[in-house]
């Protein structure tokens, strides 16, 4: 029987990774370094403000690194840290579930 | 190279499972049927209103079933559906990550 203690690792992880976009952000950064504009193009549903806040939260937690290239215009790149890459198993499990769930819903819609 | 299409299975899954508590809720329901009061005790950080809304959203999506026992006082029980049980791999991966992450943070705090 699972007992909840306030310091529940699952709750702590979801306190950081909860929200619609953070795990999706990790998903796109698993491929490698990305620029802000690229992430916005890949995630059309997210606002500029939300993307900024989510990237900052992931950076503060040590999952994402931000590199500023002093060029004109300045170039800012985001990448996963070693800690961030440890989220691959969570992202893979969620992606797998998401795809199966989408297939089941499509079958149900077709059968309706 | 991953391209985002609006119907991205990952985004769809996180649109439902995002937020601080929903995956934690699935975690506690994986053990079996639970009553509302039990879930509130296991998750001291969640408000009654948030728990009600999250359970309703998971029920509408077909992940949770709600059974009302016509007793006095009425007894309401929540359980995972077959679809809900398919989230076990996501919950396990997140629990595993959460525990390792907690250990690393404790080691870093001890070394500081």
Automatic annotation (TrEMBL), chains A, B:
PANTHER family: TRANSCRIPTIONAL REGULATOR, TRANSCRIPTIONAL REGULATOR, MARR FAMILY. Pfam families: HxlR. Keywords: DNA-binding, Transcription, Transcription regulation. This is DNA-binding HxlR family transcriptional regulator. It comes from Inquilinus ginsengisoli. The lineage of its organism: Bacteria, Pseudomonadati, Pseudomonadota, Alphaproteobacteria, Rhodospirillales. Residues 8-106 form the HTH hxlR-type domain. GO terms for molecular function: DNA binding. It comes from the Bacteria.
